[in-house]
Structure formats: structure tokens, C-alpha cells
Amino acid sequence: MRAVQLPRAVKGILMNAASTNLPTPDGPGSVSGAPNLPEGFTDTFTSRYINTGALRQHAVTGGEGPPLLLVHGWPQTWYQWRLVMPTLARDFRVVAVDQRGIGLSGKPEEGYDTGTLANDLVALMDMLGHQRFALVGFDTGMPIAYALAADHPDRVERLVVGEAFLPGLSPTPPLVLPPQLNDRLWHIAFNQLETVNEQLVTGREAIYFGAEYAASAGTNKLPDDTVSYYVDRLASNPEALHGSFAWYRAIHATIAQNQQRKERQLTVPVLAIGGAESSGAMVGDTMQLVADDVQTLIIPGTGHWVAEQAPEELLAALTAFLAPYQVGVLS
To answer: Which pTM does this prediction carry?
Structure first.
């Protein structure tokens, strides 16, 4: 792989005055307000707001090396990556972002199709001075990462995706599903509803999101305090709940975009990861439809929440897959 020219900047960051004058995020949702972080996390990582013009984005950054962008899924935030970020920061400049509408990032009414969300991330990396980067996206982060790699192929060096489908490209599941599968997937239709989902979930966030976390975990459930942290953020204000559904409400716009994207196969190397108790081989099968160079990994004994249920296994996979990128940049 060819060497990538990194911009000259302090710790890899190039930002204009509009971004450097923004307040430092604190409290719940930020690094300073996040519970149960790995030891030394706050010595390496900081929260920052970055104004990309139409959107103020929250990103957690730290580490030294070539840039690596981490894109979370639903109903999570940057916090889903906390267990793997310190090790990744030894070799990479890690950027863990809150998607539009999620966490501490801005929550506009529109712009939740994956094309717009991908553009958000390109603008973010522009502001940070990263022209090319490796990209990891799980759950809703997977279709966003796919859109970014397809729409901006000159920006992505290597792509890692996991635990999701690609709207309009993956086979559509039947309306009637086996009970266990229905428990895991019924939210996809429910979240698309215009208003009644918010009306039903408001005040019952712990019931709804708690059930989602449990059903998708398989046998190895996330700790109660971890689930409570995510739920509390979603229940913190109406905009947070509204933003959590917005990706799904834009899914038909994403389907139309993906119909165009599928005409251009990805040439970037892809690692597709599934939990054995969740998506399994489906992620690799899906990416084979849209990419030429796909490796598939199924992690045993793991459900949907891979970065939190199997951080060591995920780190091993990322380290091996990203090694040519890291070596190529530094050589």
C-alpha cells in the first residue's frame, strides 16, 4: 500500500478558529462525564466540539499515528468504543464521533440519510486535517461507512464494518419471523414510524431500549450500568429520542441512494465482522455484494454489541487488518 501523507499539525489536528473557539464538552455524554472508562482513558482522550458549518459535531480524539474514524451504531454513542480505544491509540489517531442527532452532536430535523451522514463525517475529518483515513462502522455505522466509502472513495484507506445490513441491498426479511429473530429486528419497522414511536417510548425508555439491549446481546448481556448510561442519555431530552429514530425514518432515502451506489463496486479492502449469536456471516455476505476485496470474521460467543462483548477479539482483528495501512503510512 502506498504511503499516505499526513498533514503537519499538533497531534494530527488542524482546525479553524470557528472550531477552536467552541466550548469544551463536559458532563454526561462527554469523556469527563462518562462512567467506567478504562484506566488512563482521560489521559489520552478528550471530548471536543467541531463546527463543520451546518452541524456542530462531538468527537472524542486521542492517540498518535494515522487517522482511524470510529462510527457507532444504534442506540449507542462514541462510548461503545471505549474498551478498544486505548489500545488503538497506541498506533492510530483515533476519532470516535457522535452521529448527527445522537449524543452531544447537533440534532437538526433533517439530514439522516446515509449520504448526508457520510458527508458529515467527511467534513469532520477535513476539519481535523485528515485527508485519508481508515474507517470502522458498526450497526447503523455500517451503512454510513459504506456510503462514505462509496461516495468518497478517495478518502478511505481500509474499511471495517459489522453487525448490520445495507438498506435496499441486503435481502429483506419476511414480515413474520421466528420469535427470537423478531425480538431482535422488530425495532427496524417501529423506529420508522412518524410519531407514535416517540409517544409510546417517552417515559418508558428503560423498557424499550432495555429490551433492545437484552434481545441483541445473546447470552452475554451488557452490564446493567452500561445499559442505564445509554438509556439515560436517550431519556435526557425529547431531541435525543427524536434523533435516535431519525436514521430509520430516512431509510427509504438511503435505499434510493444505495441503488445508485451498487453500480460502483468498492475496491477498498473490507473486513466484515459478525457476532456468532447475532449477524454471523450475513455481514460478509452483504459486503460481497458491493465490494471486490472482502474478508469475513465471525466472533464466537458474541452477540450484537461486539466492541463491548468481545473487545479483545475485535482488537486482534482490527490490528491485523489495519496493519498494512499503519505500516504504509509510517514507511
So the answer is: 0.93
